[in-house]
Design a protein that fits this description.
Blueprint: H1 2-21, E1 30-36, H2 41-58, E2 63-69, H3 74-87, E3 91-95, H4 97-106, E4 112-117, H5 120-123, E5 137-141, H6 146-156
Parallel strand pairs: 1-2, 1-3, 3-4, 4-5
Helix pairs in contact: 1-2, 3-4
């Protein structure tokens, strides 16, 4: 299920690029920087789905992917993004919240697509978030419909009095 959702998110991101790349120049050669926080099956699937969709749309010879993995160290994301800015990539794929935060802080001009980000408002400290980031940032959210999850728990366990939810306090989106 997670793999399917990741693939769908990647395809949506890729389709949104078609419009953005239409104005990137006549050469048809694009360089995309991919910053992924760490190796993880769901993150890897999102990155691969993104790449596959772009290759299908633009052809393998027309896109150069510069992939960097921060190996779980969020401070490395800033270094990766700074390298992408120096190389003047055409687009940055920020895979996971720390990558998105580093990209948002690193450039206001290069288009940024986020994936595997739960809540952009929280991740980017946007007050009164309306659902649209704006500027050079767009992407997909993996926010689960919490009201539907709660109802499902009640449907499966109608006698439940208390339900615990585990989350990582170090991940800003978990508190959402």
């Amino acid at each position: 299920m997670k793999k399917t959702i990741s693939l769908i998110m990647a395809l949506i991101l890729a389709m949104s690029l078609c419009i953005g790349f239409a104005s990137c120049g006549a050469s048809g050669q694009y360089t995309i920087g991919i910053c992924q926080i760490q190796p993880h099956a769901a993150l890897d699937a999102a990155t691969q789905g993104f790449k596959d969709a772009l290759i299908e749309e633009f052809g393998e010879g027309n896109i150069t992917f510069v992939e960097q993995n921060a190996q779980g160290d969020s401070t490395v994301c800033s270094t990766i993004i700074n390298d992408f800015v120096t190389k003047n990539v055409d687009l940055i794929l920020a895979n996971a919240t720390p990558s998105l935060q580093a990209a948002a802080n690193g450039t206001a001009t290069i288009p940024i697509l986020g994936t595997a980000v739960t809540e952009y408002g929280t991740a980017l400290s946007i007050e009164n978030f309306s659902g649209t980031v704006g500027g050079n940032i767009s992407g997909t959210s993996d926010l689960a419909p919490l009201d539907q999850q709660a109802q499902m728990i009640l449907d499966i366990f109608p006698k439940a009095k208390t339900v615990a939810m585990l989350y990582c306090s170090g991940e800003p989106n978990s508190a959402y």
